[in-house]
Design goal:
Chain lengths: ~725, ~240, ~80, ~80
């Protein structure tokens, strides 16, 4: 087989192959071709997404590191910074759910401590098909225990995430993991191979034949054949990673450490070429020096292995023994495998003989960018739904119960109770609220964390869906009392080669950018995952927004639970006549259509400011944003989590189901002592936010009356017990059955 | 009172225990790395923290018990020093034979992280003298292998000698199967050795010892230790006379 | 009634973190272990009409549930229970 | 070099949660499993001067580390590696 042909088999296009030949001035050998093929895969090169990602706002005075490094970094004062990043492990999890998810968690943790930060929290954003399918059930169970076992063993609390079920994800589940770390600003390190003559060392686990070509695997759609590619799935060793974490953090206190980089997709090839490219240097290494787990590995295999729990470390020459000493303490090896050079080449030797020699920059950054044209999907024209044809159900109490039982709304306790979310004793608000809150020991501060995205919204209107994901994430932080500071995003899409998918991608990015700009929340890191499709279906476009916010005084945090009988319940924001894309239509009428609710970003901004100020003033007892399931579900959730009831009356001419279950945006349900009402009203007036009393917190029962101006009246009446029962138990019942 | 927290490879509640003893109780605290030995005289309290020593590979706590630091722990236990094993620390104490019985995987094979109610079995110990016997307290658990097992004779003896410190219970103190999160025999959540100076427990008192974390029921355990060490309470008399 | 003994092992080349940790512990205790691999031993008592059927059933069990073909190999032995 | 196969099983009378779960799953799939017990298979390659020494070593390993006498029984087989 000719080289060009082989290149094609490895996924390189003719144009790409020619460029490689031109760059090298010769044909690449097998090792070089393998290295190029993984580094220029979509997963490593971002060749399909780069130009669009530039549209994100990424700058703000508090951004210490934006996209481009292992993770983003945000200044939070007190000389501290927060490091954050989210990443997908969708394809590995579709093939081997337990190990796929576990190694996904392992990988994102390494990204955080590669910056020198102590990881303090994990979040996981999950999407699966419907649980009635036995294979989906197997995938879901495996993914959750994989995440649990890895994060729990590491002693990093998993404090939040999301869990959605929709047939769109049946063949291709989404498993996104986010990690957050804290660091003193002077301790920040970067993944740069600086200083010619400095030593390049490999630390952590021995190298085996794991996951060779994993990066290209992630850049293909799933097919029957993917099953046969299974050996590329790696096994995670969280114990090894825990030792690696402690050893690296100990090491990184030393001034003579120049750079550090985790080995993820494309293993040594990626770590070496990226660190060299960032520093404008080269690296020469000898694969014979790499400790192996298996006999007889070729240079090709060593360079492309994706064995987990390894790091590349660049130290000043002469400090190799110091590195070894630190790693020995943790029973880990550290081996010098090469040196930083000045010629910009990544030169791979085997026992002194050159087996590959390519420009590091060309490998890491040279993949030709692919410009694509999007095409508005035809289905978008069918989204107009005539609601007048949908009859409002007679028994709205029953509807509310059905919504509370819907797995997209019901409690996710079955998931997050398998995650240690209290280790490190910082978790002030555990999973179960709108966002998790962690204190930062040694300061008065706290951080709040969330991930959000509604794939159905993004499917029906990618631009509005993108906007909404950012708005909702920010709102979820704000209701805890945190000011949103930064976004990390994980863009999960189908194949970019499909113009309709590309359109979704472009529009989602526009929506995210627009919302991020107006709400003033920069994007500091992220990840793109394409090819999430099978022959029968493409996933919903799912740009997951991970967001982090800051509380100046963590004791002032707020939760979603109603607290005191007698408290007034007030709606901040306005009810709208929107029903499109709602969980209500999906669950009750089996309709996934209509226009998703629209976010007025200026109004959203005022609402968030008002809520933040009210929490800061200490006048609220609880705050919970209205999202899936609408107003009735939001109130019910505040009741169930507070183990307390509600009674209220709403006057409105909006049709009853839209009022109760429509997912109109920019609304927050708060509760407060009656004496605080004037202060809240004053604040709301000042910010131009509507505030309306909905009712009161009462013991035990749940009653909402709605009346319109014509005097017609509808009601929901339920006992707290029956609501709590379906909301708390539905997921468990479904999985355990 | 000088406290030591042993750091095994894979310990991850070491910092939490250290924080409670030092910052919450205001006592001197030190980490002891598993490769080091120490003299029993060096410390008044030795904490074996939670986590996944050696990844909990093979069996939880099985490998950690061979650490050099454990040699010193045996000696300290013999000398009557207080040894507190929490979660993985409890598992290590069982494997080490400092406490009777063994730990198995939770009966539903799942990791459990949530609050549980505990009925105080005995307040007559250096660790629980600030609780009332029969009192119900709330503490978080976070473990995958907390299913305590011992044969009937051992259980009988633990009861007779009043060595069961906590039982999983409901909010009202009823010891029911529903309130048992992991399948432990007789809902046992924590036990003492014969001399009452070694306590192993699965729940995490260090995670509920500060107002900001929403629960301070665990703080009294550490305060009990201080009361005892500072000689303000005596224990064990009722039984031994 | 038939008794099956099923062994499930990691495939060659697949990382076995448990084995590695146990090897470390054994060597620490002074045993000279060169290599340790940890697998599962699953004993199943099952009904079948005859030995062949029992074997076929066990094979199916392994393929469907007991072993994960991505990572593991299996082997088994079936004997009829002597009453 | 010697190869040891070690089986570690729960003692009779100790409830085996994993076995119970697998039994449930097998029956759900339509296999008629009467009883399932899950144990460990630990394969150790070790140095020893002769077979007897190897066996003695393996016995010690089991007693000290590989099995927990409160819960578990063990048995093993050792063979010399054919080179
Ligand atoms: N996979 C998960 N891991 C951890 N926590 C989760 C997961 N799924 C949901 N949660 C938690 O459950 C709560 C409700 O989630 P969700 O319904 O997505 O909230 P919201 O609608 O406010 O975004 C949150 O606290 C969330 O962090
Ligand atoms: Mg919310």
């Amino acid at each position: 087989m000719g080289k060009a042909e082989e290149a094609k088999k490895l996924g390189l296009t003719d144009e790409e192959y020619n460029l490689i030949v031109q760059t090298l001035g010769r044909e690449p050998n097998d090792v070089e071709l393998g290295m190029y093929s993984v580094m220029w895969s979509e997963h490593c090169s971002y060749k399909n997404s780069k130009p669009l990602l530039k549209r994100f706002p990424t700058k703000a005075p508090h951004v210490l590191q934006g996209p481009g490094e292992n993770a983003g970094i945000v200044d939070i004062g007190d000389n501290l910074a927060v490091v954050l990043k989210i990443e997908s492990h969708n394809h590995p999890s579709a093939v081997e759910p337990y190990q796929g998810a576990a190694t996904g968690v392992g990988g994102i943790i390494r990204d955080i401590f590669a910056m020198g930060a102590r990881p303090v929290a994990l979040l996981d954003s999950l999407r699966f098909g419907e649980l009635d399918d036995p294979r989906v059930k197997y995938l879901f169970g495996g993914v959750v225990s994989g995440i649990a076992d890895y994060g729990n063993c590491m002693g990093i609390p998993t404090v939040g995430g999301e869990t959605y079920f929709n047939d769109a994800y049946k063949d291709n589940p989404l498993v996104n993991a986010m990690c957050v770390g804290i660091i003193r600003q002077e301790d920040i390190v970067r993944g740069k191979a600086q200083g010619v003559g400095n030593s390049v060392m490999l630390v952590g686990a021995a190298t085996g034949r794991d996951g060779i070509h994993g990066a290209s695997f992630a850049s293909e759609e799933l097919s029957e054949e993917s099953e046969s590619k299974r050996p590329s799935v790696q096994v995670g060793d969280p114990f090894m990673e825990k030792l690696l974490l402690e050893a690296c953090l100990e090491l990184l206190k030393e001034k003579w450490v120049v750079g550090i980089q985790d080995l993820g997709a494309a293993g040594l090839t990626s770590a070496c070429s990226e660190t060299a490219a960032r520093a404008g240097t080269g690296i020469e290494l000898d694969v014979a020096l790499v400790p192996r787990r298996e006999k007889g590995m070729t240079p090709y295999e060593v360079m492309l292995s994706e064995s987990q729990e390894r790091m590349l470390i660049i130290v000043e020459k002469g400090h190799e023994e110091d590195v070894k000493r630190i790693f020995e303490k943790w029973d880990l090896y550290a081996v010098k495998i090469g040196e930083v050079t000045g010629d910009g080449m990544l030169r791979v030797l085997e026992n002194g003989k050159v087996v590959a020699e390519v420009p590091a920059k060309s490998l890491a950054e040279g993949a030709p960018v692919i410009k694509r044209e999007g095409k508005r999907p035809a289905y978008m024209d069918m989204q107009d739904l005539d609601y007048s044809k949908i009859e409002i159900p007679e028994n709205l109490s029953e509807v509310l119960l059905q919504l509370l039982a819907s797995l997209n709304i019901a409690s996710k306790a079955w998931v997050y109770q398998q995650y240690d979310h209290t280790v490190r004793t910082n978790t002030v608000v555990p999973p179960g609220s709108d966002a998790a809150v962690l204190r930062i020991k040694g300061t008065k501060k706290g951080i709040a964390l969330t991930t959000d995205c509604n794939g159905l919204y993004c499917y029906l209107d990618p631009y509005e869906g993108g906007k909404q994901a950012v708005a909702e994430a920010a709102r979820n932080l704000v209701v805890t009392g945190a000011k949103p500071l930064a976004i990390t995003d994980c863009l999960n899409f189908g194949s970019p080669e499909n113009p309709e998918v590309y359109y979704q991608f472009e529009k989602c990015i526009e929506g995210i950018s627009q919302a991020a700009r107006i709400l003033e929340i920069p994007v500091v890191s992220g990840n793109v995952s394409f090819y999430n499709e099978s022959c029968s279906r493409v996933i919903f476009p799912t740009p997951v927004i991970g967001m982090m916010g800051l509380l100046e005084d963590v004791t002032k945090h707020c939760t979603i639970a109603f607290k005191n009988p007698g408290d007034l319940v007030v709606l901040l924001g306005e009810n709208t006549d929107e029903l499109g894309a709602s969980e209500y239509l999906r669950v009750i009428f089996n309709i996934q259509g209509g226009k998703p609710p629209r976010v007025d970003l200026e109004r959203e901004k005022r609402l968030q400011l008002c809520c933040l100020k009210a929490i800061e003033k200490g006048i609220l007892s609880s705050a919970h944003d209205v999202s899936e399931g609408g107003l009735a579900v939001a109130i019910a959730e505040s009741c169930i989590t507070g183990n307390i009831g509600f009674e209220g009356e709403i006057m409105s001419d909006i049709r009853a189901d839209a009022l109760l279950f429509g997912e109109g945006q920019s609304r927050i349900v708060v509760s407060l002592k009656e004496e605080n009402l004037p202060a809240l009203i004053e604040l709301a007036d000042k910010e131009g936010v509507k505030a309306a009393v909905l009712g009161r917190v009462v013991p035990e029962y749940f009653r909402i009356n709605i009346k319109d101006s014509k005097g017609s009246c509808k009601k929901i009446e339920l006992s707290l017990k029956e609501m709590a029962e379906v909301w708390s138990k539905s997921l468990e019942r479904k999985v355990e059955r | 009172m000088r406290g030591a927290v042993i750091v095994f490879p894979g310990s991850n509640c070491d910092v939490d225990c250290f924080h409670v003893w030092k910052d919450v109780l205001g006592q001197p605290a030190e980490y002891v790395f598993h490769k080091e030995k120490f003299s029993p005289e060096d410390f008044d309290l030795i904490i074996l923290p939670g986590g996944f020593s050696y990844g909990d590979y093979l069996r939880a706590g099985a490998i950690a018990r061979f650490s050099p630091a454990m040699d010193s722990v045996y000696k300290a236990a013999e000398k009557g020093k207080l040894i507190l094993g929490i979660c993985n620390g409890f598992q290590i104490l069982l494997e080490a034979g400092l406490l009777p019985g063994a730990m198995m995987k939770n009966r539903d094979l799942k990791f459990h992280c949530h609050d549980v109610y505990l009925k105080v079995g005995t307040a007559d110990s250096p660790f629980t003298n600030m609780y009332l016997p029969g009192e119900v307290v709330k503490m978080p658990i976070a473990h995958g292998e907390g299913n305590y097992y011992a044969d009937a004779d051992t259980i009988e003896r633990l009861k007779r000698e009043d060595r069961i410190v906590f039982y999983y219970s409901d909010e009202k103190g009823n010891i029911t199967d529903e309130a048992n999160p992991n399948g432990s025999v007789e809902n046992i959540a924590g036990i003492l050795n014969e001399e009452r100076n070694v306590l192993g427990m699965m729940p995490h008192p260090e995670r509920c010892a500060e107002e900001i974390l929403g629960n301070t029921d665990g703080k009294r355990l550490f305060m009990s230790i201080l009361e005892y060490l500072e000689g303000r309470v005596k224990i064990g008399k009722s039984r031994r006379s | 009634m038939f008794n099956a003994k099923i062994w499930v092992r990691f495939k060659n080349g697949v990382l076995d973190p448990q084995g590695a940790a146990i090897k470390g512990a054994l060597n620490h205790l002074g045993f000279e272990a060169e290599d340790v691999r940890v697998g599962k031993l699953i004993e199943v008592k099952l009904k079948a009409d005859n030995l062949d059927e029992a074997k076929a059933k066990v094979e199916m069990m392994c393929e469907k549930l007991l072993a994960n073909p991505v990572l593991e190999d299996f082997s088994f032995e079936v004997v009829e229970e002597s009453i």
